[in-house]
Design a protein that fits this description.
The complex is a heterodimer of chains A (166) and B (77). By secondary structure, chain A is of the alpha/beta class. Chain A contains six helices and four strands; from the N terminus they run E-H-E-H-H-H-E-H-H-E. Chain A is 39% helix and 13% strand. With 77 residues, chain B is of the alpha+beta class. Chain B has a four-stranded mixed β-sheet, covered by helices on one side. In chain B, strand 1, helix 1 and strand 2 form a beta-alpha-beta unit.
Chain lengths: 166, 77
Amino acid sequence: MAEKKKSTEKEKMTVVLFSGAVDKALAAGILATTGASMGMDVSMFFTFWGLNILKKNEGSPGGKGIMKKMLNWMNRGGSKRLKLSKFHMFGMGTAMMKKFMKESHIPSIEEFIQMAKNMGVKLVPCSTSCGVMGLEEGGFREEVGSLAGAAFFLNEARQSKVTLFI
Amino acid sequence: MKADQTLDCVGLYCPMPIVKTAEKFKELKAGEVLEIIADDKGIKYDIPAWAQATGNEYLGMEESGGEIRVYVKKTKK
């Protein structure tokens, strides 16, 4: 996180993922990995519901105190549990869309996270959202970097040619 | 058109042909030409855009029977 600017001046791209819906996460994943493929230095910020994408798929979702633990059990998250923003239909719509995506050889959110990490995309959870929901760094997947706040995001966005809020 | 290497992306949608092209380009030497075969129509605009963004040379494309062959030359290391 405290990384200095590299000497090779790459163009920067920043993506904010506010949503925890699988369709929006897919759009963010496609754009981030394409940006990295186009030679851009990509940072992804995950805030509010977007944090669900980075939560571990297994184990306790964590949370400080009973109320926050309950919140995190109900809002469980994890790349494999995300729902569509529309047409979820008690899981049937999401299952159908996942099937169609698989048939079209579109990578899953799980695969997009790993691809992004391998391409050097930085995955940054928003520290304020983590604080509000009682989440700690240990509750996130291993690909995730350390938490950061709005100033860090804006400083990245300030230097970016492309900034998206999804 | 003659190519040094071929990348088969038939059946793949955006962003996979671009991700795979970028990966493949790491193996290529400067001056070599890559042929990308795809059937997703987006490739017609995506590869020229990718080449422009990365500073490589887009040479052209051939289309026949739903199959699109795109040629890009690696211009730098």
